[in-house]
Amino acid sequence: MTDGFKSGFVALIGRPNVGKSTLLNELVGQKVAIMSNKPQTTRNKIQGVYTTDDAQIIFIDTPGIHKPKHRLGEFMTQIAEQTLREVDLILFMVDVEAGMGRGDQYIMERLKKSSTPVFLILNKIDLVHPEQLLPVIDTYRKEMDFKEVVPISARLGSNVNTMLEEIKHYLEEGPKYYPDDQVTDHPERFIISELIREKILQLTEEEVPHSVAVVIENIEPPSNGDKMTVQAAIIVERDSQKGIIIGKGGKMLKEIGSRARRDIEALLGSRIYLELWVKVQKNWRDKAFYLRDFGFDQDEY
Question: What is the third-level CATH fold of 6-170?
Answer without folding.
Answer: Rossmann fold (3.40.50)
